[in-house]
Amino acid sequence: MVDIASGTLELSTFRAYLAIERRFVVESARLLAAAALRSPDEETLIQHVYAAHHLVHDQLRYFAETLQRVGDSGPVSTAALATAGGLARLAREVVASGDYWHPIVLSYATEHLYLTWCDATLPAVDPGTEVGRWVAMHTTSSFRGRVKYLASEVDRATPDGAAGQANRLYREVIEAEIRFHEAPYADSGPDGHTDKDHEDTEHD
Question: What pLDDT digit, counting tens, does each position of 134-185 carry?
Fold first, then answer.
């Protein structure tokens, strides 16, 4: 986010991020499917099914179209996958937990962090660029509404006496999410640029 705000984000880093994020969309869909399965009522079920559909339809289409425009980054490196993998492992553990509130806490933590970061960087980006469009996508009224809904669900669904567990999970998710966003830099050299950056420069 620092690079986005300062206008110094390398295109190759953004490509790598998109490829990594696209993989996590599938994990997020599983998470929402688990929340839908364990929903306490019909209205809640519909909320999560709609959100899951948005991921597997709109979001996956966004990644496919954007990667086509900016160029595919190629296979995600082992180092990047290792750095990003903690969030996916945590998501799978949450799905396996068997309850409703764990997926809700994880979903809220990730989406609220995106909203906070993108709200902070929105004034600094060009809305006509791919990065600007990505930031704007996470500040729309519908995205804000989803974050607000998840916040209310965390309060409603967290069992009495489980607030401490929910807070610990929230902190775990935030830490994993931060590492996740460091993953595109996992292959950076000593000058802070990836091998692909140097290849792009050499071919300019």
Answer: 999 999 999 999 999 999 999 999 999 999 999 999 999 999 999 999 999 9
Helix axes 163-182, 11-37, angle to 10 degrees: 150
Distance from C-alpha of 14 to C-alpha of 160, rounded to nearest angstrom: 42
Closest C-alpha to 130, from 184, 177, 62 = 62
Of the candidates 177, 36, 18, 107, the one whose C-alpha atom is nearest the C-alpha of residue 10 is: 18
Q: Hey, what long-range contacts does 48-52 have (CB within 8 A, 24 or more apart)?
A: 51/146
CB 22 within 8 A of CB 73: no
The predicted-structure confidence for 80-131, as pLDDT tens digits, reads as follows 989 999 999 999 999 999 999 999 999 999 999 999 999 999 999 999 999 9
Q: How confident is the model at residue 8 (pLDDT cuts 50, 70, 90)?
A: confident
Q: Which of 40, 75, 57 is nearest to 158 (CA)?
A: 40
C-beta neighbour count of 57 within 10 angstroms: 10
> Which two three-digit tokens encode residue 10?
């390398």
Torsion angles phi and psi, residue 65, rounded to 5: -70, -40
CA nearest 87: which of 26, 34, 36? Answer: 26
Measured CA angle at 95 (ends 86, 147), to 5 deg: 80
